[in-house]
Amino acid sequence: MAMFIEHYGTLTEADRQLWRATAHGWHLYPVPLTRPADDYRTYEVEITELCVRRALTEEEHVQAEQRAQEFIRPHVAALRAALRGR
Q: pTM, whole model, 2 decimals?
């Protein structure tokens, strides 16, 4: 929520935009820090886009899996052929 307030300027607008994003199937995923927060250097940054990603539908998951399988299939076949040729 803090990211939305910082980006949109007010709690009211941040809340509205967060609900709007959620209603359209977008989700925020927190990224855990591997070390304590004060162990990281800080830098000033300019926010140009919010980092949100829409959750995939079941059909989109199936399509993505099919595309991935189609992409790797020839590479797997080539590896298997190379291993048989040893």
A: 0.37
Q: What is the DSSP string of 20-69?
A: HHHHTTEE------SS-GGGS--------S---EEPPPHHHHHHHHHHHH
DSSP for residue 74 = H
Whole-number pLDDT of residue 34: 78
Q: Which two tokens stand for residue 34?
A: 């591997």
Q: What is the DSSP letter of 85?
A: T
For residues 23-59, one letter each, b for 16 or more C-beta atoms within 10 angstroms of the residue's C-beta and e for the rest, the string is: eeeeeeeeeeeeeeeeeeeeeeeeeeeeeeeeeeeee
Which structure tokens are listed for 51? Answer: 């980092």
